[in-house]
Amino acid sequence: MRSLVPGDVLAQVAELLGDAATSDSADAAVGVRLTEDGVELHLRTAPHGLHVAELLVGFDAPAEWDAIGVIAHGRAFPVASGRAAAQPVTVVHLQARSGAACSRYGPPGGAPQVDTFAEGRVAELCRRCVGLPNPPPLVSPLHWWAVAWLDELAATPAVELFRRERELVELFPGGEPFGAERTLSALEEHGRLLEHSCPWPCLRAAVAAGTIEMPGVAPDEAAWLDDGLFSRFAMGGLAHPAALFEELRERLQPELHGALGALLRRWRVLEGCEGCGACG
Predict the structure, then answer these.
(1) What is the per-residue pLDDT across 99-149, written as a single tens digit (0 to 9) for each?
(2) In whole numbers, what is the pLDDT of the chain averaged over residues?
(3) Total structural domains in the chain?
């Protein structure tokens, strides 16, 4: 069994990595192995134009690695200092199998100015790489179906103006309601059934099997992601629902637009969507 890495040791490694980075260094994923002689590092640099997080997707860290993380470069605006120009910074985030994690950033090649912990996609990917759990989904999968539907409606070029509920219902990507009724009321119930019959694990399995296509998430990626991270990948690939709903205002009769909004509110798509991943 691998020894547990305490937080102070992880912080020391992060500081060493930050000190060694320069403004010309490439972003990289880093594996950390503690040995009797010190620290063994494994680096994989990100090609130009590729976000370093992409190096982590689908990667299972070797069992002998004690931690995994990233070294990345960017620019930060120092609000407190009053300076007008953003300053270059180096960011280091490390996640240990023990559960300890740390994030540090500061000037390239200099001592870190901030010692903190940053949540987000990189942190979640690092946890997944070492087999640690991520927070569960923050919204229902019905939220994804609904926003994918709005996106489909907004992108449909064949119809200049939707006039009937049936025209909207027929474009719902999660299938149509059972029976002959093709109304938004029938679709509401259909969506509720879909929500309970195909929760996030089921939807992830369907994308992994290739039976459902999800923009931005390949089948092999879906198979590797956990349910919480998968849900945030799914929502992150879609536009904000409120923006799509507003875009549809010019393409729907006013009464139809109002009825659509009422349905989306009952599905809790237009309200309570903070943190779903669709807002960037």
Answers:
(1) 989 988 877 766 655 566 668 899 999 999 999 999 999 999 999 999 999
(2) 86
(3) 2
My answer on whether 37 and 124 are in the same domain is yes
The answer to whether residue 135 is domain-embedded is no
Which of 94, 129, 164 marks a domain boundary?
A: 129
205 vs 214: CA distance, rounded Å? 12
Q: How many Cα atoms occupy the beta-carbon half-sphere of 15 within 13 Å? A: 12
- 120/33 same-domain check: yes
Contacts of 162 (CB under 8 A, 6+ apart): 153, 168, 248, 251, 252, 253, 256
Quick check: 280 pLDDT over 60? no
Residue 117: which domain range? 7-129
Distances from the Cα of 212 to the Cαs of 34, 75, 269, in angstroms? 42, 38, 21
Q: Which residue has the higher pLDDT, 153 or 75?
A: 153
Residues 186, 226, single domain; the answer is yes
